[in-house]
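User: We ran a pulldown and think these components assemble together. Before we commit to crystallization trials, I'd like a predicted model of the whole complex to look at. Sequences follow.
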Amino acid sequence: MNIIKIQQLVDSDGIVFLSYGGYLSQTLISGMTEALELEAKEYGITMNVSNNLFTIFIELSQNIMNYSKAVESDAKRPQGLIVVSKDSDYNYYIDSQNIISSEDKEKIEPKLLEIQSLDRDGIKKRYRELRRSGHNTHDKGGGIGFYEIAKKCDAIEYDFTKINEDRYYFHIKTTTITKKREN
Amino acid sequence: MENLQIQATKYTPEIALDLKGIISLVGKSYPENTFEFYAPLMQWIEEYFKNEPAKKTVVNMEIIYFNSSSSKLFFDFFDLLEENANEHEIEINWIYDEENESAEEAGEDFIEDFEKLDIKLVTK
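Assistant: Here's a predicted model for the assembly, 307 residues in total across the polymer chains.
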Protein backbone atom coordinates (compact mmCIF):
# COMPACT_ATOMS: atom_id res chain seq x y z
CA MET A 1 0.00 0.00 0.00
CA ASN A 2 1.28 3.41 -0.91
CA ILE A 3 0.33 5.65 1.97
CA ILE A 4 2.24 8.63 0.54
CA LYS A 5 0.03 8.41 -2.55
CA ILE A 6 -3.06 8.45 -0.38
CA GLN A 7 -1.71 11.43 1.54
CA GLN A 8 -1.02 13.26 -1.76
CA LEU A 9 -4.53 12.55 -2.95
CA VAL A 10 -5.98 13.79 0.33
CA ASP A 11 -3.94 17.00 0.10
CA SER A 12 -4.52 17.75 -3.57
CA ASP A 13 -8.27 17.18 -3.48
CA GLY A 14 -8.89 19.13 -0.30
CA ILE A 15 -9.94 16.03 1.56
CA VAL A 16 -9.28 17.33 4.99
CA PHE A 17 -10.70 15.06 7.54
CA LEU A 18 -12.82 12.21 6.38
CA SER A 19 -12.58 9.53 3.81
CA TYR A 20 -13.86 6.11 4.46
CA GLY A 21 -14.15 3.17 2.17
CA GLY A 22 -15.16 0.29 4.39
CA TYR A 23 -18.09 -1.04 6.36
CA LEU A 24 -20.20 1.64 7.99
CA SER A 25 -21.76 1.21 11.40
CA GLN A 26 -23.79 3.58 13.56
CA THR A 27 -20.88 4.01 15.99
CA LEU A 28 -18.55 4.91 13.15
CA ILE A 29 -21.05 7.38 11.67
CA SER A 30 -21.43 9.01 15.06
CA GLY A 31 -17.64 9.24 15.47
CA MET A 32 -17.20 10.77 12.03
CA THR A 33 -19.97 13.26 12.79
CA GLU A 34 -17.99 14.25 15.88
CA ALA A 35 -14.92 14.80 13.70
CA LEU A 36 -17.07 17.00 11.45
CA GLU A 37 -18.20 18.96 14.49
CA LEU A 38 -14.55 19.61 15.39
CA GLU A 39 -13.81 20.70 11.82
CA ALA A 40 -16.76 23.12 11.82
CA LYS A 41 -15.67 24.55 15.15
CA GLU A 42 -12.05 24.91 14.05
CA TYR A 43 -13.00 26.87 10.92
CA GLY A 44 -15.76 28.93 12.47
CA ILE A 45 -18.55 27.58 10.27
CA THR A 46 -21.84 29.10 11.44
CA MET A 47 -24.09 26.91 13.53
CA ASN A 48 -26.75 26.84 10.85
CA VAL A 49 -24.45 25.79 8.01
CA SER A 50 -22.63 23.25 10.16
CA ASN A 51 -25.84 21.64 11.41
CA ASN A 52 -26.96 21.34 7.78
CA LEU A 53 -23.64 19.73 6.91
CA PHE A 54 -23.97 17.21 9.76
CA THR A 55 -27.48 16.30 8.68
CA ILE A 56 -26.40 15.71 5.07
CA PHE A 57 -23.44 13.60 6.21
CA ILE A 58 -25.63 11.51 8.53
CA GLU A 59 -28.31 11.06 5.90
CA LEU A 60 -25.84 9.89 3.22
CA SER A 61 -23.86 7.61 5.51
CA GLN A 62 -27.00 6.04 7.00
CA ASN A 63 -28.20 5.43 3.44
CA ILE A 64 -25.02 3.47 2.79
CA MET A 65 -25.46 1.59 6.06
CA ASN A 66 -29.07 0.68 5.35
CA TYR A 67 -29.29 0.19 1.60
CA SER A 68 -25.97 -0.96 0.16
CA LYS A 69 -26.00 -4.31 -1.56
CA ALA A 70 -23.41 -6.95 -2.29
CA VAL A 71 -22.56 -7.29 -5.99
CA GLU A 72 -23.16 -11.01 -6.41
CA SER A 73 -25.95 -11.72 -3.96
CA ASP A 74 -29.03 -10.12 -2.44
CA ALA A 75 -27.25 -9.65 0.86
CA LYS A 76 -27.02 -6.21 2.35
CA ARG A 77 -23.48 -4.95 2.60
CA PRO A 78 -23.14 -1.68 4.47
CA GLN A 79 -20.04 -0.72 2.52
CA GLY A 80 -19.35 2.39 0.56
CA LEU A 81 -17.21 5.43 0.15
CA ILE A 82 -17.92 8.69 1.91
CA VAL A 83 -15.65 11.69 1.48
CA VAL A 84 -15.94 15.18 2.89
CA SER A 85 -13.80 17.79 1.20
CA LYS A 86 -13.54 21.55 0.98
CA ASP A 87 -12.12 24.11 -1.40
CA SER A 88 -10.09 27.22 -0.69
CA ASP A 89 -13.28 29.23 -0.10
CA TYR A 90 -14.34 26.75 2.59
CA ASN A 91 -17.20 25.42 0.54
CA TYR A 92 -17.84 21.84 1.60
CA TYR A 93 -18.54 18.85 -0.60
CA ILE A 94 -19.79 15.47 0.51
CA ASP A 95 -19.40 12.60 -1.95
CA SER A 96 -20.93 9.25 -1.23
CA GLN A 97 -20.87 6.14 -3.35
CA ASN A 98 -22.31 2.70 -2.79
CA ILE A 99 -23.72 -0.27 -4.64
CA ILE A 100 -27.48 -0.49 -5.03
CA SER A 101 -29.90 -2.87 -6.75
CA SER A 102 -31.70 -1.84 -9.93
CA GLU A 103 -34.91 -2.01 -7.90
CA ASP A 104 -33.58 0.67 -5.55
CA LYS A 105 -32.39 2.70 -8.53
CA GLU A 106 -36.00 2.70 -9.76
CA LYS A 107 -37.06 4.15 -6.40
CA ILE A 108 -34.27 6.68 -6.03
CA GLU A 109 -34.01 8.11 -9.53
CA PRO A 110 -37.53 9.60 -9.81
CA LYS A 111 -37.03 11.34 -6.46
CA LEU A 112 -33.73 12.86 -7.56
CA LEU A 113 -35.20 13.91 -10.91
CA GLU A 114 -38.09 15.56 -9.10
CA ILE A 115 -35.72 17.33 -6.70
CA GLN A 116 -33.64 18.67 -9.61
CA SER A 117 -36.81 20.10 -11.20
CA LEU A 118 -37.90 22.00 -8.09
CA ASP A 119 -36.73 25.26 -6.56
CA ARG A 120 -36.03 25.58 -2.85
CA ASP A 121 -39.60 26.38 -1.86
CA GLY A 122 -40.84 23.53 -4.04
CA ILE A 123 -38.51 21.10 -2.27
CA LYS A 124 -39.66 22.26 1.16
CA LYS A 125 -43.30 21.92 0.14
CA ARG A 126 -42.79 18.43 -1.25
CA TYR A 127 -40.86 17.38 1.86
CA ARG A 128 -43.79 18.32 4.06
CA GLU A 129 -46.32 16.64 1.77
CA LEU A 130 -44.34 13.40 1.81
CA ARG A 131 -43.79 13.54 5.55
CA ARG A 132 -47.50 14.01 6.09
CA SER A 133 -48.60 11.28 3.70
CA GLY A 134 -46.37 8.68 5.32
CA HIS A 135 -46.00 6.84 2.03
CA ASN A 136 -42.82 4.97 1.36
CA THR A 137 -42.17 4.47 5.05
CA HIS A 138 -40.56 1.17 4.24
CA ASP A 139 -37.43 0.01 6.00
CA LYS A 140 -35.73 2.36 8.36
CA GLY A 141 -36.19 5.81 6.92
CA GLY A 142 -39.22 7.92 6.26
CA GLY A 143 -38.75 8.03 2.48
CA ILE A 144 -37.85 11.71 2.68
CA GLY A 145 -34.08 11.49 3.04
CA PHE A 146 -33.15 12.97 -0.34
CA TYR A 147 -35.57 15.84 0.17
CA GLU A 148 -33.96 16.44 3.58
CA ILE A 149 -30.54 16.56 1.89
CA ALA A 150 -31.82 18.86 -0.88
CA LYS A 151 -33.30 21.26 1.69
CA LYS A 152 -29.97 21.49 3.46
CA CYS A 153 -27.41 21.86 0.67
CA ASP A 154 -26.86 24.28 -2.20
CA ALA A 155 -26.50 21.76 -5.02
CA ILE A 156 -26.85 18.04 -5.69
CA GLU A 157 -25.19 16.05 -8.46
CA TYR A 158 -25.60 12.33 -8.92
CA ASP A 159 -24.95 9.48 -11.32
CA PHE A 160 -25.60 5.79 -11.64
CA THR A 161 -22.96 3.52 -13.18
CA LYS A 162 -24.02 0.08 -14.27
CA ILE A 163 -22.04 -2.85 -12.84
CA ASN A 164 -24.23 -5.69 -14.12
CA GLU A 165 -27.91 -6.37 -14.90
CA ASP A 166 -29.00 -5.78 -11.35
CA ARG A 167 -26.32 -3.65 -9.71
CA TYR A 168 -25.29 -0.01 -10.01
CA TYR A 169 -22.78 2.27 -8.38
CA PHE A 170 -24.77 5.19 -7.02
CA HIS A 171 -22.74 8.35 -6.55
CA ILE A 172 -24.15 11.53 -5.06
CA LYS A 173 -22.34 14.79 -4.37
CA THR A 174 -23.65 17.70 -2.35
CA THR A 175 -22.30 21.22 -2.22
CA THR A 176 -22.55 23.44 0.84
CA ILE A 177 -21.58 27.07 0.44
CA THR A 178 -20.47 28.40 3.80
CA LYS A 179 -20.03 32.11 3.24
CA LYS A 180 -22.95 33.16 1.11
CA ARG A 181 -24.27 35.70 3.59
CA GLU A 182 -21.11 37.77 3.63
CA ASN A 183 -20.87 40.67 1.24
CA MET B 1 -47.72 3.94 35.21
CA GLU B 2 -44.26 5.30 35.96
CA ASN B 3 -42.00 8.12 34.89
CA LEU B 4 -39.66 7.21 32.06
CA GLN B 5 -36.09 8.42 31.69
CA ILE B 6 -33.77 7.58 28.81
CA GLN B 7 -30.18 8.83 28.92
CA ALA B 8 -28.75 10.71 25.95
CA THR B 9 -26.21 9.08 23.67
CA LYS B 10 -24.07 10.69 20.97
CA TYR B 11 -26.91 10.17 18.51
CA THR B 12 -30.08 10.07 20.60
CA PRO B 13 -31.58 12.72 22.86
CA GLU B 14 -32.19 12.57 26.58
CA ILE B 15 -35.83 11.73 27.09
CA ALA B 16 -37.64 12.52 30.33
CA LEU B 17 -41.33 11.70 30.71
CA ASP B 18 -42.83 12.83 33.99
CA LEU B 19 -46.39 12.01 35.09
CA LYS B 20 -46.63 15.54 36.52
CA GLY B 21 -47.07 16.57 32.90
CA ILE B 22 -43.53 17.47 31.84
CA ILE B 23 -42.19 15.78 28.74
CA SER B 24 -38.76 16.67 27.45
CA LEU B 25 -36.47 15.63 24.61
CA VAL B 26 -33.04 17.24 24.52
CA GLY B 27 -30.09 16.49 22.24
CA LYS B 28 -29.32 15.13 18.79
CA SER B 29 -31.44 12.60 17.00
CA TYR B 30 -30.15 10.21 14.38
CA PRO B 31 -30.71 6.68 15.74
CA GLU B 32 -29.95 3.63 13.65
CA ASN B 33 -33.54 2.43 14.03
CA THR B 34 -35.53 5.57 14.68
CA PHE B 35 -38.99 4.04 14.99
CA GLU B 36 -37.72 1.32 17.31
CA PHE B 37 -35.80 3.79 19.43
CA TYR B 38 -38.81 6.05 19.97
CA ALA B 39 -41.36 3.26 20.47
CA PRO B 40 -41.19 3.51 24.31
CA LEU B 41 -41.84 7.27 24.09
CA MET B 42 -44.86 6.81 21.82
CA GLN B 43 -46.25 4.00 24.01
CA TRP B 44 -45.78 6.05 27.17
CA ILE B 45 -47.60 9.06 25.67
CA GLU B 46 -50.54 6.90 24.57
CA GLU B 47 -50.83 5.32 28.02
CA TYR B 48 -50.44 8.68 29.71
CA PHE B 49 -53.39 10.26 27.94
CA LYS B 50 -55.51 7.12 28.39
CA ASN B 51 -54.93 7.07 32.13
CA GLU B 52 -54.74 10.20 34.18
CA PRO B 53 -52.84 12.99 32.50
CA ALA B 54 -51.90 16.15 34.41
CA LYS B 55 -54.21 19.14 34.08
CA LYS B 56 -51.70 20.68 31.74
CA THR B 57 -49.00 18.86 29.76
CA VAL B 58 -45.85 20.74 28.76
CA VAL B 59 -43.63 19.30 26.04
CA ASN B 60 -40.12 20.75 25.76
CA MET B 61 -38.25 19.77 22.62
CA GLU B 62 -34.70 20.90 22.07
CA ILE B 63 -33.26 18.91 19.21
CA ILE B 64 -30.03 20.37 17.83
CA TYR B 65 -30.09 18.41 14.60
CA PHE B 66 -31.87 15.31 13.39
CA ASN B 67 -32.05 12.90 10.45
CA SER B 68 -35.04 12.53 8.15
CA SER B 69 -36.51 9.49 9.88
CA SER B 70 -36.47 11.44 13.17
CA SER B 71 -38.27 14.23 11.35
CA LYS B 72 -40.95 11.74 10.32
CA LEU B 73 -41.10 10.37 13.86
CA PHE B 74 -41.54 13.86 15.36
CA PHE B 75 -44.37 14.38 12.91
CA ASP B 76 -46.05 11.20 14.19
CA PHE B 77 -45.38 12.34 17.76
CA PHE B 78 -47.10 15.69 17.17
CA ASP B 79 -49.92 13.83 15.45
CA LEU B 80 -50.42 11.77 18.59
CA LEU B 81 -50.41 14.92 20.72
CA GLU B 82 -52.92 16.57 18.41
CA GLU B 83 -55.29 13.63 18.82
CA ASN B 84 -55.37 14.47 22.50
CA ALA B 85 -55.39 18.24 22.20
CA ASN B 86 -59.17 18.63 22.23
CA GLU B 87 -59.59 17.01 25.61
CA HIS B 88 -56.35 18.02 27.26
CA GLU B 89 -54.34 21.19 27.62
CA ILE B 90 -50.99 20.69 25.88
CA GLU B 91 -48.26 23.27 25.45
CA ILE B 92 -45.26 22.55 23.23
CA ASN B 93 -42.04 24.51 23.38
CA TRP B 94 -39.81 24.07 20.35
CA ILE B 95 -36.49 25.28 21.74
CA TYR B 96 -33.45 26.21 19.61
CA ASP B 97 -30.40 28.42 19.52
CA GLU B 98 -31.18 31.68 17.74
CA GLU B 99 -28.38 31.00 15.23
CA ASN B 100 -29.87 27.63 14.32
CA GLU B 101 -32.09 28.67 11.41
CA SER B 102 -32.81 25.10 10.31
CA ALA B 103 -34.23 24.27 13.72
CA GLU B 104 -36.34 27.42 13.61
CA GLU B 105 -37.66 26.51 10.19
CA ALA B 106 -38.45 22.97 11.34
CA GLY B 107 -40.46 24.45 14.21
CA GLU B 108 -42.33 26.79 11.87
CA ASP B 109 -43.23 23.86 9.63
CA PHE B 110 -44.64 21.92 12.57
CA ILE B 111 -46.71 24.94 13.60
CA GLU B 112 -48.21 25.09 10.11
CA ASP B 113 -48.78 21.34 9.97
CA PHE B 114 -50.49 21.17 13.37
CA GLU B 115 -52.89 24.07 13.61
CA LYS B 116 -54.68 22.58 16.60
CA LEU B 117 -51.50 22.35 18.65
CA ASP B 118 -50.11 25.18 20.73
CA ILE B 119 -46.47 25.12 19.56
CA LYS B 120 -44.28 28.00 20.69
CA LEU B 121 -40.90 28.86 19.19
CA VAL B 122 -38.49 29.53 22.03
CA THR B 123 -34.96 30.82 21.40
CA LYS B 124 -32.21 30.20 23.92
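Strands of chain B lie at 4-6, 14-18, 22-29, 56-66, 89-96, 118-123. That may be worth checking against your pulldown data before setting up trials.

User: Thanks, that helps.
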